[in-house]
Known about the structure:
The protein has helices at 24-28, 46-56, 64-75; strands at residues 14-15, 18-19.
Amino acid sequence: MLTGEISMTNGNAFVNNYSVIKQLDSVHQNLGYCPQFDALDSLLTAREHLYFYARLRGIKRKNIPFISTTYSDVIRIKLGSKNSLS
């Protein structure tokens, strides 16, 4: 709900005084993700991982294909690959 991927059914939430309902872009810029265990789910492709983290950081959906292609070229991964990500 804090990332905006799941709609809230009632109420509101705030991150650093930004409303999740009204100021989602600002909320994204104030979120981080620190998993307790291996963050790279073996069921996700490289493209899906890049999409997840891009959305978490507030990157607009329309910009993600360009960014994911650019970064995959830089780190030399295949976006459809489920191997060698951890």
